[in-house]
Amino acid sequence: MATTADMRNGLIIKLDGSLYSVVEFGQNKTARAAAKVWAKLKGVDNNRSIEHTWNSGDNIFPIRVEKRAYQYLYKDDTGFNLMDNNSFEQIVVGENLIEHPELFKDGQECFVIINTETESPMGVELPPSINLKVTYSEPGVKGDTATRAMKAATLETGAVIQVPLFVNEGEIIKIDSKTGNYVERVKA
Asked: Does this model's pTM top 0.70?
């Protein structure tokens, strides 16, 4: 049994029959009242985001999860087909379980979060950063860099993101997989 003292970011807990991931948490103390623990929770098995408050020391019900390495194979009508790197078993994951599905490239490694109680996938995480090639981008205008201006660029996966004006077609760029934003150019 766990208590609110065991609360941490990324912990998956069961609350009111649904599974939630802890996004942010904190503690409120006042001089007269007992301490309270609050958390911002994001639904794992639903699309809800809620805030919840417990008394300090209350019981919480964490769910044991494992992060397993998978490889992205292809997408079809049923969803994203992934292969376990160890057992070579394939699973199909819905698009709603992936934060930035537009950044998936054939053969790319990812991590599937598995609920060990039911052996069902709960979500898919990409590596922290992804290197992708720019397939289309308007040329930048010389001397227009003082304002940190951005332009749209199409990547090899079909995703369109905002990049600085100096990024050209054919270059490889690094993208933050959590936000989907441009990080830097990759030297060849």
From this structure: yes
